[in-house]
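Re: that backbone. Tokens:
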């Protein structure tokens, strides 16, 4: 499918989605969010795809929701259209792993979009922030919720109340990102991680994603029970037999997602 605000490529079982509004530092407008939601759903449907990488440009992953698009909206407008909710729900329905590869600005909705992914790999140029407070509003798609769970109350309050930016080193130290690499190596690192994930059984990787995400939604006791049951259920797969046989036979496993 042809898109105008994103570029989508599938290669070697990895779907690379690149945000592409260079004149606006990839600010998230209605078209971009709608195209992104469609591309994410297509990646979920596409049997060739086993992992997704979401990225932006060298200067910006995304500098937030499009301020020019939002500036004249009323409460009734944003309440009625439930700004970006259907699109973010569509991204949340993707069961395959998604990595965010972030260079440059990831601000406001851009930081929130990165946090919707399963983990974030950052370039040393990355800058994260929730500067909506400077616009007389606040975060609206996860900046007070996902960020708090990722980096804790004190830092989340600091980021949201002052609007300050966090560099890549602090983001890694705080648990917002999983790795930081030199900017030139960002895409190699992210695609390499995606490739590694794509080599596993898709049943395992989707089950792992579901189980880790469950930890956000439930108590430890219920989460551990959920994990144990999913773990048990994987013994019903051919990939479990293959993975364990390959280990014993000292060879690489050939997973078939069954
Ligand atoms: C619309 C944006 C934009 C944005 C940048 N641009 N961010 N347009 N919405 N969020 C546009 C600029 O207007 C400019 O266009 C071009 O991109 C380049 O930006 P500059 O400001 O000239 O670049 P620079 O001086 O390098 O500054 C980079 C920046 C700054 C620090 C990232 O652009 C900035 O502060 N942007 C806004 C960040 C922000 O407040 N984000 C939160 C948005 S609210 P022209 O045409 O002038 O060249 C949000 C709510 C989420 O995200 C909740 C959703 C439900």
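Recovered sequence:
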């Amino acid at each position: 499918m042809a898109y105008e605000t994103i570029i989508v490529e599938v290669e070697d079982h990895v779907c690379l989605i690149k945000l592409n509004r260079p004149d606006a530092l990839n600010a998230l407008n209605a078209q971009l969010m709608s195209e992104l939601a469609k591309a994410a759903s297509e990646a979920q449907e596409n049997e060739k795809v086993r992992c997704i990488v979401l990225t932006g440009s060298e200067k910006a992953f995304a500098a937030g929701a499009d301020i020019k698009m939002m500036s004249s909206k009323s409460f009734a407008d944003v309440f009625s259209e439930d700004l970006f909710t259907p699109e973010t729900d569509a991204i949340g329905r993707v069961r395959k792993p998604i990595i965010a590869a972030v260079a440059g600005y990831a601000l406001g909705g851009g930081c929130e979009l990165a946090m919707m992914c399963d983990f974030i790999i950052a370039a040393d140029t990355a800058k994260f922030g929730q500067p909506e407070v400077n616009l007389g509003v606040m975060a609206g798609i996860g900046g007070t919720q996902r960020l708090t769970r990722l980096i804790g109350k004190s830092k989340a309050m600091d980021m949201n109340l002052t609007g300050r930016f966090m560099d890549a080193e602090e983001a890694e130290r705080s648990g917002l990102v999983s790795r930081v690499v030199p900017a030139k190596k960002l895409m190699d690192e992210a695609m390499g991680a995606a490739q590694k994930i794509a080599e596993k059984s898709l049943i395992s990787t989707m089950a792992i994603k579901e189980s880790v995400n469950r930890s956000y939604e439930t108590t430890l006791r219920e989460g551990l029970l959920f994990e144990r049951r999913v773990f048990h259920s994987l013994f019903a797969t051919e990939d479990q037999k293959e993975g364990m046989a390959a280990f014993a036979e000292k060879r690489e496993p050939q997973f078939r997602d069954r």
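The mean pLDDT is 97. Residues 24-25, 27, 63-68, 83-84, 105, 107-109, 131-132, 135, 140-141 surround hexanoyl-coenzyme A (CB under 6 Å).
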